[in-house]
Please model this.
Amino acid sequence: MIHPILGLHHVTATVDDAQADLDFCVDRLGMRLVKKTVNFDNHNVYHFYYGTERGLPGTIWTTFPYKDKGVRMGVKGAGQVVTTSFSVPAASLGFWQRRLAEAGVNARDIETRFGEDAIRIDDPSGLWFELVATDRDARTPWTGSGVGANEAIRGLHSVTMVVRSLKQTLELMTQFLGYTVAGEAENRTRVAAGGDAPGHYIDIEVDPDAVPAVNGLGTVHHVAMAISTGDEQRRLREELLSIGVRVTDIRDRCYFESIYFREPGGVLFEVATIQPGFTSDEDLSALGRGLKLPPWEEPYRAAIEAALPRVEYR
Ligand code: ZN
Model:
């Protein structure tokens, strides 16, 4: 049975400084902070969610700022998402290069990939981002921070994950998650689910000599795919278990429900529901303004707020 993965849901990374992360994602890239909460597994660390107005699945970039918590620098390598690509309008790369240069961010041209131009930048923690220029993305952008509708990020375009061999990874994704091959280039296979468009792609880069990835500052922790309903999620979980994939139980993330498992190449995958979304505990106009805690953390709010670093953002 092929399960209806709808495309990307979010990408989550471990970063260094909370304020630097906010400055970069909001002020430089023009994303909206749609939720300020804490890491549900460590309430002394923020969890920031960025996206477009509502933080719809497929637009969400999320970070855990682990500065001064004893977390080492990560190593990019096999078994990891190494690059997160955001979708921007086709004619906007000049704007982005000028804007980023003014902020001291070095943007490099990269080779045209599957017919689309892109630039590569590093975030303050050393994460690799791409801005991919495309005329195939009709999603409504969030505008602000000096970024207008003609330039603004539309959401995630794709991620690039590195594995040492393709076969088993591709089999799992095509036979059980519903992905199809959307493009092939040297060392790179693009798969898509839920549509052949930005927000639906995962690029599998094969490098037999890649060093093993090490989780830590400046690396992506996992990529999440969207699934339509909790029922579909439960069915997928049972099926993955039946073929020997070690899947977690269903975790309540407040804004969605999630399961996690590693694909054969070692990359941590999450499958997350669409509902209830980020307006479940804040009005749309106020998303990201308050520190939102899951119900089980509310009794500890005063201590949590006192321990978190102070941050400012628009
Ligand atoms: Zn996640």
Remarks:
- The chain has one domain: 5-307.
- The domain at 5-307 is CATH 3.10.180.10 (2,3-Dihydroxybiphenyl 1,2-Dioxygenase; domain 1).
